[in-house]
Design a protein that fits this description.
EC 2.4.-.-, Glycosyltransf_2, transferase, about 280 residues, alpha/beta, seven-stranded mixed beta sheet, Spore Coat Polysaccharide Biosynthesis Protein SpsA, Chain A, Nucleotide-diphossugar_trans, globular, three-stranded mixed beta sheet
Length: about 280
């Protein structure tokens, strides 16, 4: 974009080793209906940094920031530090936001919300594994929406906040994985008395390219992040109510029998990850 134009919305996209998917994401962001929008891509130490730089160079509204390979939480903080707009949106490099996505989130914030988030949906409907993975993430977020449209959690695939909120409530860069860092951020945001508003029209499609083994590893990683989050917030001994898990399985089976079974498998993988992280936390440093 023209460097003399002050953007009204900045979109931060952390990326690592997925230049092909990043190109699709940036194409979707170039189609956003907001004119004064900038895209800040944070390359978190990709092996082929030149490939990422070439993709960013092909997107007129995008610019590149180099991350230190410390994980997506630290990468998002680096993106926020480089962003120039009063509203900062976040999405992931394997996501395609619809054209009105950024405008919808910014409009919700303009009505008084400190942060806003929209629905993330599976962008690979023919993949049972992707459907199961998205069912888990979607239920974790949308089960927290109250009748007034406030949320307690939203994934960073589809999130926005005022820039001063980003400064006051940064992501915890000590989270090394893409797991739990978004739950931690939302918990601290809501715990500070700020509002996170659900914005149904701000849709993002999530294109997860997962094999069954990759799905298992992802869910184990989520379990590790869940343990770290719960340990840090003092909720290890407070499991979710049974109704949460019943709703989760129902959401999975709505995507098909095989997806429902995989959602059940995901709970086993999550438990394995929590055990692994608990054991790691007990090791002497």
């Amino acid at each position: 974009m023209n460097p003399q134009v002050v953007p009204q919305i900045s979109v931060v996209v952390p990326t690592r080793d997925r230049p092909d998917r990043l190109a699709v994401c940036l194409a979707a962001l170039e189609r956003q209906t907001v004119a004064d929008l900038e895209i800040v891509v944070v390359d978190d130490a990709s092996r082929d940094a030149a490939a990422v730089a070439a993709v960013v160079a092909g997107a007129p509204r995008a610019r590149l920031v180099r991350g230190a390979g410390r994980g997506p939480a630290a990468a998002r903080n680096a993106g926020v530090a480089a962003a120039a707009a009063p509203v900062v949106c976040f999405t992931d490099d394997d996501c395609d936001p619809v054209p009105g996505w950024a405008a919808a989130l910014a409009a919700r914030i303009a009505t008084g919300a400190d942060a806003a988030a929209g629905p993330t949906r599976n962008g690979r409907p023919h993949s049972v594994v992707a459907a199961a993975a998205q069912a888990v993430a979607t239920h974790l977020a949308e089960a927290t929406v109250d009748p007034a449209g406030r949320m307690r959690f939203a994934p960073t695939s589809n999130l926005a906040c005022r820039a001063e909120v980003c400064a006051a409530v940064p992501f915890d860069g000590s989270y090394p994985l893409a797991a739990g860092e978004d739950r931690d951020w939302c918990a601290r945001l809501v715990g500070s008395g700020r509002t996170l508003a659900f914005t149904p029209e701000a849709l993002v499609r999530h294109h997860q390219e997962l094999s069954p083994a990759g799905f298992w590893r992802q869910q184990v990683r989520y379990g590790r992040g869940a343990y770290r989050f719960r340990a840090g917030h003092g909720t290890l001994r407070r499991p979710e109510p049974l109704s949460f898990y019943v709703g989760l399985l129902r959401r999975g089976f709505r995507a098909g029998i095989r997806a429902g079974v995989l959602v059940g498998v995901a709970q086993v993988a999550t438990a394995v990850g929590m055990v692994q992280e608990a054991a790691a936390a007990r090791r002497p440093r």
